[in-house]
Amino acid sequence: MTHQEERIRIILEQLWKNRSLPAGEIGPVEYVYAGYKENDCPPAEGWQLAAPHQRYEGYDGHVWLRAHFHTPAARPHCRLVLTCDTGRSGNGCMNPQSLLYLNGEIAQGFDVNHTEAVLAPDTDYDLLNYFYLSLEPGSVECELTLSYVEERTEHLWYDLAVMLDTAVITEPDSADYRAILKHMTAAVNLLDLREPQSDTYYASVEKAIDYLYTEFYGKVCTPEGKPIVTCIGHTHIDVEWKWNRYQTMEKVQRSFSTALALMRRFPEYKFMLSQPNLYQYLKATAPQKYEELKQRIREGRWEPEGAMYLEADCNLVSGESFVRQLMHGKRFFREEFGKENYILFLPDVFGYSAALPQILRKSGIRHFVTSKISWNDTNTMPVDTFLWQGIDGTEIFTNFITTQKYAPVPARTTTYNGKLTPSEIKGTWHKYLQKDYANRQFTTFGFGDGGGGPTEKMLEVQRRLAYGLPGMPVTETGLLLPHLDKVREQFDRACLEKKETPRWVGELYLEFHRGTYTSIAKNKRNNRKSEFLLQKLETLSYTDLLFGGAYDEKGLWDHWEKVLHNQFHDIIPGSSIKSVYDLTDRDYAEINAYGDRVKAEKAASLAARIGSDGGVLVYNALGFPVRGTVTVDGETRETPEIPAFGWRVIPDTPAVCRVSVSGRTAENRLYRLTVDEAGRIVELFDKAAQRNVLLPGQTANELQAFEDLPRVYDNWEISEYYTQKQWTLDTPCTVEPIYDGARAGFTIRRTYLQSEICQKIWLYSEREGIDIETELDWHEHHQILKAAFPLDLNTDTATFEIQYGHVTRPIHRNTSWDKARFEVYGHKWLDLSEYGYGVGILNDSKYGCSIEGTTVKVTMLKCGTFPNPEADQGLHRFTYTLLPHTGDFRAAGVVQAAYRLNQPLSAVRIAPHGGDLADCFSLASVDADNVILEVVKKAEDGDDMIVRAYDAYRTRRTVHLSVAPGFTKAYLCDLMENNLAELPFDGQTATLTVKPFEIVTVRFTRS
Ligand SMILES: [Zn+2]
Fold this sequence. Notes:
It is a single chain. This protein is an alpha+beta fold and 1007 residues long. The strands form 13 sheets. Strands 34-35-36-37-46-43-42-39-40 form a nine-stranded antiparallel β-sheet. Strand 30 (681-686) and strand 31 form a beta hairpin. Helix 5 crosses helix 7 (287-298). The site of zinc ion has 4 residues, from loops. Zinc ion is lined by residues 236, 238, 348, 569.
């Protein structure tokens, strides 16, 4: 700062002191400690008188405060405010926060950024303040005082502060700087600070303001020809993170009502908020505020946008979960507010699947917005406004948030929690790369996570920046959708003129938070199981509906919503505190109980009507015929082909085992597998291909532990140096033969430090693949556990399943982008292949993986301690499958095998009886391997059947989709089930062409 600038700063401090004038006490104040409130009523008993500077203490605790008082008379040029001072500052989400009730109504929230509430003069008030103590240790105050804010002094303070904050980021030699400095100096020279509160002082303040608006804001400043930064009020609220959902409900009450209170005072204030889940909380807990919010929506000042039910993780959740996130989110906004959503808004999600562009466009979304890729630890994205192209070629218009403090060389990281300072407004435009494609960018401003969103100060600063200060972009307040639509228009024009379209092809991999593919393994597993369970329930229920049964539409919707909630971007990634996972355990238990009940009901209802000579009724919930294994009374049997989405009654004959186990070698017609005394696979010979699967001299299913002390963000992160300290689990262990019906192999038991590891390696009589069932009783911290598979293959890429398709990633480290992908995720399978041969590795709940050369390392566990000290302790169960194959993964059926592992056949014995249903049935099937039928469900708007399928092979084919009798017409739909075109349909088979990775949704209407 120059001396001149310092002079202004000191005068600003004087003015700030003069801004507030005391207005008396509100005492006596009483308080009572309490738990989470059930409604808006404090406890009746236990009130105590608060001492001056009374301190309150308790993690996650609450205190109610109450007072009755009469406010003093009005004072000219002043507003009367109630101030809540907790003694804390900063913008941490962990700070104390409270909800203010005045005369029985919620008035607004208080937090360290919002400490004032405007009161009416000469009025009786009954005050209640529901005070949340904080998530930080130590005690806090809750001092409530009255004061007058002298608005002329305040006005001048903002006028000068915005100029000073602009001057310090302006090149000192420039004409812009000189103009700002000249007028600031002239204004402060008009001020007479000798007797604050005197008429002379106030006259000088008015004179200085007049001067600035005549000479500076009115003359020097201009919006003409300047780039525009649209300022969109926002508060990012993590649905669960370092607090659980019950605290989020309170954060919602506080932050939403704070925003609404400020909207009453600042008519230009516009606000955008995503996440229907949060709106549901407000609706349930503060209905009057919800009505006020609806009024702001009708006025076009509050924008409910963002499309998904909540801001979900986009690496780990399934393709169908994406569809449901959008369906639940869009429906909520439409039904509650009459608003159609067009933007996927995910500022804080840890990477974006290349399946998204197609899913978004087919759900009526035209814009995607994020900022998180700016958190990359290695590379900077080369685009900010661009077409993002997904695996099927669909493009979605994408915009990154570029808000950051101004620096001559922009930093990489940007923020969605903008502060609307001159520095951030300048930085937002300075950082923005597509200046030649649009003359506008936006900032989302406001404190998040209970910080109450935009502040009065931000709004005052915006009013001044809207004049267009020298050297600055001009600001306007606005909403996100109209802004993006304008940018799109300019972008399209510029692409034509410049003959160059900014584009990014493939996934938006976040080079950070790579541990989130693995942390809190139980939630990854529960999510995977729940996704498959609910899809199975929908298929079974629709089958039952077709035969006259009931379809529990509400139950399925509500249980999907539990799954969707737990896909929030701090829940499923594993970055939340323990109490969050205690609640998600409860959710998943409820989902399972519901699933068990519906499955049993539907199975009984169908079984009773199937005419057969008795045997075992095997049900296949997958959309292709399955020849696999099924468990009958605890015994594994191999089955003949069971039809797609259907059943077959098979003879009740015991299994035959054609696997021989001798010493440490197991053998079937397909493989010979030998383990060493440490339980590692030392030989895996593929008899059909006559080749060894493993690299010579190396061992597979070798368990490796690594020290995991990431440099930041413990449970989120794997730092690239983790490989430098490795312990191989290579000491002798127990290896015993094991037999179960049509399969046999070894049980391998080992102890590792305080933990027990039991693995069962299974070969099957006929079925391809080697299953490795793993049970870990884990009691270690700060270690990564991996299972390594050194494969004898020549390839430089690996293929990973993602949502509704797959991606291929290089497995070398040629470029900084390749190198940064040292840990990646896949869904149910990954595959390494050379021409004619390869190996698939399938899993039933593991996502993280690293590949070094052709050694695949499946990441089994990562057990950090922050923010959950008990992360990943205890029992873990999961299975992975090794599937050596000739041909590529398509020819070898790797995709289908991975589905079989995740959605196994189920069986019940049935006695001989007559019935109107056949003993072999398929609800829907398709005549092509590449097209996977994924979903059968009842249409949202009636009893029609919705079938969703996709091409899993990246190929193009005309296919025939056959359905059970009872349907009249077939329509191609979008993912939101809107009809697009009628398909040729002969009452049994619909014909359609499916393009590479295309997702198709077909509606079959009922007669
Ligand atoms: Zn977040």
